[in-house]
Amino acid sequence: MLTYIVKRLFEMIPMLIGITLISFIVVNLAPGNPAQFLSSMNPKISETAYQKFINMYQLDKPVLERYWIWLKKLSRLDFGNSFASDQKPVLSKIAERLPVTIYLNLVSMILIIIISIPIGVLSAVYRNSLFDRITTVIVYIGFAVPTFWLAILCAYYFGVIKGWLPISGLTSYEFEDFSTLEKIYDVIWHSILPVGISVFGSIAGFSRFIKSSMMDAINEDYITAAYARGLSKNTVIFKHALRNALLPVITILGLSIPGLIGGSVIFESVFSIPGMGQLFYQSVMMRDYPVIMGILVIGSFLTLLGNLIADISYAIADPRIRYGKKK
Amino acid sequence: MVKRNKLFISGISIIIFFTVVAIFAPIIAPYDPSEIDLMNILNPPSLKNLFGTDELGRDVFSRVVYGTRISLSVGFISVGISVFIGTIIGLVSGYFKGLTDLILMKIVDIALCFPTFFLILAVIAFLKPSIYNIMIVIGITSWMGVARMVRAETMSITERDYITAAKVAGLKKRVILFKHILPNVASPILVSATLGVASSILVESALSFLGLGVQPPTPSWGNIITSGKDNIMFAWWLSFFPGICILLAVLGFNLTGEGLRDILDPKSKE
């Protein structure tokens, strides 16, 4: 098991290099550079200041050379400094924002699992029942609904018209004066809308996947065999079928990470939450290359890590993987 | 069989409906979508303006009708691009196996680990948002699923006797790939293309929402919602109707895709 994990960790390195190389080229080959952008924002900027900026960030060097310099710094976990006027180190900028995004996505993911497994299992076991029909309709709508639109409408209805829920930020103005318990309560209170909508959007996909995985499992020979041995329906379904049906779900969870991270741009901009998605959007608009690259690296690293955890859990759950060939 | 498949029938009806709206937009729209009328701003829905008017007094119904053109064309063309790339890579990978397959599948793995939406955002913002850039960028970031699926299908078809026969007969690889294998993987490709249109429409609308889609004054469903967002306190209709259209269009493509899957793949029938 340990060799497997170590091997997988080493496999991540070429993947990360591939991802960063492509990102770096794409980001840097775009027409126009941050210096031009800066001077277009402020036409009074002098020629010398313009050159100084170019020299400071070595923007005149070829892309691959700059990538190499960037990669060498990255290997020391140095992401460089932001182009923005604060010139803060990229890593500390991201570190401020990352916990918020991870918190929201983790909570969403846990809720998605808790809610969609029973829905998927029940609609597989009671196929064509009223419950199955209703959830199928909801699933189709959940699949099709543009989440940012739902977010705007819910913010308007629950936040503005009803005034039940806060619609912006993750904390109240008086947050600093709150006791610890009040702080926790305040954050949860602010998370209800963003998390709720993100969960609604994803439940559709997950519960559908679980349903079809469960239906496959129910049709397997070992299920017939289990019934033949006289086991009760509950034992067969929850002990035999469910365990096998949940295996592929682990992989799907790992694969859904890029989508969740990408979705955070939308949620964080609708609800003005100071997370990584919002930072990325601001950096893109300001052409803050170091921050953009930093977030792309962190984002792909999280994805790779998620996939690794998924594969390890898979290996733990399924002995065939542990002892047999990989995948 | 097609007639009995409710999913397919309802889905394809929605697609046909929106396609007709897109094609005949100038006839269907009662007003010019960019005609500003400052005497009638933010009017609620009425018989005169079915979906109300926006902050510049433009008719939201006409704008939504014209927006259909943007959403559908982005959906179709970006999927065309992604299916083209995915099919070629999948065919080559599945047929030649070995090192070619290894390298191509590594590329797929890398592409799957990209925070795609971030990359799309960055590229569009740098290249200046235009409908062509959006189609291309969505297309080249969403081919991986098709590639994997085509590869798996190609691998199993390559084992069949008629492919061996074609090889023995001395046919060129190109002919075997495109004339003998491709037609046999066409139906799963069609299914994933249909589902792909749905997700492209969603991505385009999200980009428009962030101000990186098709630029105003050209109406797109996403950018109408965005302008509605700023006025939601006084004019819910601005955001509401284009959102419903996105929902319906995506639903239509998803239903059609699912229906097609049932029709084309007898295995999925019980």
TrEMBL record, chain A:
CDD domains: TM_PBP2. InterPro entries: BPD_transp_1_N, MetI-like, MetI-like_sf. It comes from the Bacteria. It is a multi-pass membrane protein. The lineage of its organism: Bacteria, Pseudomonadati, Deferribacterota, Deferribacteres, Deferribacterales. Keywords: Cell membrane, Membrane, Transmembrane, Transmembrane helix, Transport. Belongs to the binding-protein-dependent transport system permease family. The chain crosses the membrane at residues 12-31, 102-125, 137-158, 187-206, 245-271, 291-317. This is Diguanylate cyclase. Gene3D superfamilies: MetI-like. GO terms for biological process: transmembrane transport. One of its GO terms (cellular component) is plasma membrane. It comes from Calditerrivibrio nitroreducens. Residues 98-310 form the ABC transmembrane type-1 domain. It is found in: Cell membrane.
TrEMBL record, chain B:
PROSITE patterns: ABC_TM1. It is found in: Cell membrane. InterPro entries: BP-dependent_transpt_permease, MetI-like, MetI-like_sf, OppC_N. Its main location: membrane. The chain crosses the membrane at residues 7-29, 70-96, 103-125, 131-150, 181-214, 234-255. One of its GO terms (biological process) is transmembrane transport. Pfam families: BPD_transp_1 (PF00528), OppC_N (PF12911). Keywords: Cell membrane, Membrane, Transmembrane, Transmembrane helix, Transport. GO terms for cellular component: plasma membrane. The keyword Ligase does not apply. It comes from the Bacteria. The keyword Kinase does not apply. Residues 68-257 form the ABC transmembrane type-1 domain. It is a multi-pass membrane protein. PANTHER family: D,D-DIPEPTIDE TRANSPORT SYSTEM PERMEASE PROTEIN DDPC-RELATED, OLIGOPEPTIDE TRANSPORT SYSTEM PERMEASE PROTEIN APPC. Belongs to the binding-protein-dependent transport system permease family. This is Peptide ABC transporter permease. It comes from Calditerrivibrio nitroreducens. The lineage of its organism: Bacteria, Pseudomonadati, Deferribacterota, Deferribacteres, Deferribacterales.
